[in-house]
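ok so I'm stuck.
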Amino acid sequence: MPADERFAARWESARASVPRFLTAAPAPAGVPLPPGLALRGRLATGARRPETARGSGSGGSGTRTPRSGRGGGPRRAFERARRAWDRPLTAYYVILGSSLLITVLGLVMVYSASMIKALDISKPATYFFGKQFLAAVIGGGLMLIAARMPVKLHRGLAYPILMVTVFLMVLVQVPGIGMSVNGNQNWLYLGGPFQLQPSEFGKLALILWGADLLARKQDKRLLTQWKHMLVPLVPVAFMLLGLIMLGGDMGTAIILTAILFGLLWLAGAPTRLFAGVLGFAVVIGFVLIRTSPNRMSRLACMGVSEPDPEGGCWQAAHGIYALASGGWFGSGLGASVEKWGQLPEPHTDFIFAITGEELGLAGTLSVLALFAALGYAGIRVAGRTEDPFVRYAAGGVTTWITAQAVINIGAVLGLLPIAGVPLPLFSYGGSALLPTMFAVGLMIAFAREDPAAKAALAMRKPGVRWKTMRRRVKKRSSGER
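replied:
not stuck anymore, here's the structure
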């Protein structure tokens, strides 16, 4: 072995026998070292390898690639959204937040859309807004009560609510007690400026009673027989429909029919049975429409863009005008032109048109997104529960709110006939707002009844949170730091 190599080997063995921080001494001058030893010697003396620019190369030892878990890409944002949606309390917060936002925005739009109508009938500009605000306060109390009630109590209220509703709907048809508004005999006078429409409470009554009936039959395994699935659910629903149609309210009858079909669908009705009931309802609806010139005129106004010379389709055409003049962001809150007498019912059935005119496409899409979130959260509550009553009731409420919103907005857009139904939680009308807010409280109660949601809510109590979040450390002596 040459002398230089023997000296290098001795030098390496000597460096290995001393601490690492003492090996920074350079090798003797003039002594060549092997490549590996030379590299270690440069690193020990503090020399650093030249760094390559980040992202400048695709390979090599000096290139640093960012970790895939970091960054704000769309895939990571989607994963975060998916994990957030899978949390136990997501449906609870979505139902509560979306319903409150729709109600608050509806109060603002009711005030903006109704001020000219109020002044036109010699009332203060806040006349309709004050009545709607009072109904929203009462409805908020009902929603809070319903959200705090246990499921057993909701089931216990099913039969009393149904009997009281049927009694009030019969009372509407008694001459001298019932009132006629816009040609429909479906109102009760309560004194002063207040009126009550019992058919709006019929939707809630059918959902609670039907859900309790189907849940008890499912527990007894009777829903496999078609007669137990139809009787007495369909006859009672047809009785409610008959009382509503006696007053001439076709729009509420359509919503009640949608609720009935939603309950049958959730109960697992066979396709032939479902199609048979649907066909019977279509035939009855066709006969009722053909025998009424008013309903035929509403059907003929689908898709029109201009009123006819005789004044027909005036409301449908001016609803399209209001939406078309809104643009992207609208003319501004309170700056609507159509509410100055051109558009009938600007604060009730066609409040969505005024929203599009004043808030533009951005405002209407926001309203649609809130209703979509509320409907999707209701589907989640109905799909994740093991309680059949909760599944039927949550599915019925979701069907009610979603179908009514689709029918109202479709009529404003000219895609459906004008049915005369309000936009849920949004349009003016205390009789429609009160049962709807109680139904929202019902869904909140169901979302809270989920076992995972119960555990998450229990962890948020002050005492439990302090015990679980407190750090447990050993006691130290006074001199120990």
